[in-house]
Design goal:
By secondary structure, this protein is mostly beta strands. The protein contains no helices and eleven strands.
Length: about 120
């Protein structure tokens, strides 16, 4: 399985960004997909996840501001993270990930999000 993430960039506080991640390969084995982020000087954290049945979960810090969604195609699965009302604490490298058998196994290359105050 390959994950290709895109959509990061520089945005002012209060702005929006949309991250995209395309999964290809043996996608039939995937269930939950999600977005992690690693902020400067902090541990990597799970920001949002979405199951194959579209059940979503969010970190408390992003609830009400971020929305995760997925699109299950024939040969690819795409997951999106719509980020609104961004704050400087949202700055970090965002990683798309996919779970198999209950573990986060596959990882994208990371995309940098920088929110200026």
């Amino acid at each position: 399985v390959q994950l290709q993430a895109s959509g990061g960039g520089l945005v002012q506080a209060g702005g929006s960004l949309r991250l995209s991640c395309a999964a290809s390969g043996s996608i039939f084995s995937l269930n939950t997909m999600g977005w992690y982020r690693r902020a400067p000087g902090k541990q990597r954290e799970l920001v949002a996840s979405i199951s194959s049945g579209d059940r979503t979960n969010y970190a408390d810090s992003v609830k009400g501001r971020f929305t995760i969604s997925r699109d299950n195609g024939k040969n690819t699965v795409s997951v999106y993270l719509q980020m609104d009302s961004l704050i400087p604490d949202d700055t970090g490298v965002y990683y798309c990930s996919a779970a198999k058998g209950g573990s986060w196994v596959y990882w994208g290359q990371g995309t940098l999000v920088t929110v200026s105050s």
